[in-house]
What we know:
Number of strands: 0
Largest sheet: none
Low-confidence stretches: 26-34
Helix content: 40-55%
Structural class: mainly alpha
Radius of gyration: 32 Å
Order of helices and strands: HHHHHH
Shape: elongated
Strand content: under 5%
Amino acid sequence: MWLAVFFLVVVAALIHFRPHTNPVGVEGFATTAVHPLRVPECVARSTDAQKLLARFAGINNDAAEELRLLVSKVCCMEADIATPSAGGTPRTLRIQFRTSHDMEPPSSLVGRCLRNAVNKRDIELIVEKFQARGHVLINGLCASASEKVEAHKELDSVVARLQMSMMSFCLRPSPNMDRPAGVRDVGFWEPKAADLPQYQGITAQPR
């Protein structure tokens, strides 16, 4: 009987004095921490943007810094246009303006876009400038030709996503002056019996 009592005491002591440790690898936060250099703001929205910047994660020169800014800017513009924050601060408000790849401040462009005040030619010029500058930076950062090809494809995919959002939400409505909105609305009308003489220019001589 004394043996059973001793065994129970040992088990109770082991249970009471066991070390209380948390499981290894479990993070106690609801969101994961993001490295500001490897994954800048808004880049988490695009897998192609993440793969592109991961190629240059260990490079900290001016070209790599500008490429991170450009990719982050394109992703934040796409985010503000496609999913604008209701009453919140636009993501592009914190993005730096650069004359090398910007035609106007990003937040100003997003504001015009949300008011449908951008035409198709503006979008083409904006996308073209982003792509041209991005390709120049990639050519200076990549060491091999195969890496350049893949990096160019990833950049084009990121910019194409912005272009699709702008074409969907930013275009200015085309003028519709001579076509009525409905069957009962007033529209352009020309009388059927319009017998007008041919214009022959201005002259002081009687005709």
